[in-house]
Amino acid sequence: MGSKIVFGTDGWRGAIAEDYTFENVRRCAQGFAFYLLHHGKQGQTLVIGYDKRFLSEDFALAAAEVMAGNDFYVLLTDGATPTPVIAYAVVDKKATGAINITASHNPPIDNGFKVRDEHGGAIAPDGLKEIESLIPDSEADCKRMPAKDAQASGKITYFDASIDYIVHLKDLIDLEPIKNAGLNIVVDAMWGNGAGWFTRLLAGGKTKVMEIHNTRNPIFPEMKRPEPIPPNINVGLRTTVEQNADALLITDGDADRLGVGDENGVFVNQLQVYGLLAFYLLEVRKERGAIVKTLSTTSMLEKLGKLYDVPVYETGVGFKYVAPKMMETDAMIGGEESGGYAFRGNVPERDGILAGLYMLDFMVKLNKKPSELLALLFSKVGAHYYDRIDTSFDGNRSDREKMILNEHPREIGGLKVTGLNTLDGYKFILEDGGWLLIRFSGTEAIMRVYCETTHQDKVQAILHDGLKIAGLA
């Protein structure tokens, strides 16, 4: 009997060769096949793509063999492909869903298995639980059609997903002003799927794009993991200063997340980027519509919602919550603290490429550099400061949760506690409108302590108090 496979906030991830094995990938694929068959999707088309991690293309082919064995038609990407491009292909090809072999921002030893619905978005929590329950205990219960036979019969077809995605992008944004703006941009692809994309999209004009970390290297040198936050991006920030660049754009391992560095080599954190993107849509593009945010992202969005009279909805952490809420509310934008942002008119999936283009368009339209855009945002909603600590912990998770609930702090970091939100973790609301959040990772044995406040000098005190509440200090 195989080990139990549990889906986290965005699919299943594991250590390669330890629990992430060909056997377990096939078992996951069979569980997804059973799920689709149970919902009347037999004989339909499925998109499968992958990233640049170790053996990803082989794991993707193993999943494709199982789906073909269950009488599905598989469109398999002909190379490593960004997650948003895979998601768009689902809609463009009228597929019933997708499998994406990627561990996104995880450490080099990991790989992952993500599933997507017919809209290209994350499957809701109830659906993920159903898929989990249908994963067979043994590889012997997996149906397979050898790749050679599947290709000969048309059950597996390789395709280039980039072509139609680029056509679609040009419906969402006019690239010509960015091409002709004469910007000097550094792009850090973090050895991942974002390599070559901004160069390809912005070629032919005065704007120059310099890429770093843009080849395949699954050990991810010069960073702990391909997650677009410090210290992983420090080389990119230094390069921005050395090249006298106007901005740094960073895409994570599968290019669904965006990080930003300003012209001075200073990191623009992911909460600030979300505020900037929402501000851009509201102020520059004059769009109106709901904003969907996870509870771990910025309260600047509520302030923008009031200023522009648009609703703001808060969800649990993960796009399995954000995507369904975006579709329900026809949201203008949805996003999360990890640097993933999705947009109306596109699929309800994080898109680091489109987010990066929107940031560049914001710079061009207002003729401002990133630090100036952030100052403009702060002039509207006030300055906000954020930080996060991730730490491993000993003992039982439920015991930790009881400890947190029993604390009842009246003050955190010298600020009065005005409320507690337990939607996903433990979010203590502070008197300045800021917050402290303590929650457990859905994919790793890690506790995360986050905060946002309008008091720059209180950030570390708030985090320290958070660690004490969690019994970690």
Structural key phrases:
single chain; 473 residues; alpha/beta; Alpha-D-Glucose-1,6-Bisphosphate, Chain A, domain 3; TATA-Binding Protein; 3 domains; 6-stranded mixed beta sheet; 16 helices; 36% helix
List the helices and strands and how they pair.
Blueprint: E1 12-15, H1 22-38, E2 45-50, H2 56-69, E3 73-77, H3 83-92, E4 98-101, E5 110-116, H4 125-134, H5 147-152, E6 156-159, H6 162-172, H7 176-179, E7 184-188, H8 197-201, E8 208-212, H9 234-242, E9 247-251, E10 258-261, E11 267-268, H10 270-284, E12 291-294, H11 300-308, E13 312-315, H12 319-329, E14 333-335, E15 341-343, H13 352-366, H14 370-381, E16 385-391, H15 397-405, E17 411-412, E18 415-421, E19 426-430, E20 435-440, E21 447-453, H16 459-469
Parallel strand pairs: 2-3, 2-4, 3-6, 7-8, 7-9, 12-13, 12-14
Antiparallel strand pairs: 1-5, 4-5, 9-10, 10-11, 14-15, 16-21, 17-18, 18-19, 19-20, 20-21
Protein described:
This protein is of the alpha/beta class and 473 residues long. The chain has 3 domains: 12-164, Alpha-D-Glucose-1,6-Bisphosphate, subunit A, domain 3 (Alpha-D-Glucose-1,6-Bisphosphate, Chain A, domain 3); 173-381, 3-Layer(aba) Sandwich (Alpha-D-Glucose-1,6-Bisphosphate, Chain A, domain 3); 385-469, Alpha-D-phosphohexomutase, C-terminal domain (TATA-Binding Protein), CATH 3.30.310. The chain is built from 16 helices and 21 strands. Strands 1-5-4-2-3-6 form a 6-stranded mixed beta sheet, sandwiched between helices. The protein has a 6-stranded antiparallel beta sheet with strand order 16-21-20-19-18-17. A 5-stranded mixed beta sheet has the order 8-7-9-10-11, sandwiched between helices. The longest helix has 17 residues, at 22-38. The protein is globular and about 65 Å long. It starts with 11 loop residues before the first strand and ends with a helix. The model has no long low-confidence stretch (mean pLDDT 95).
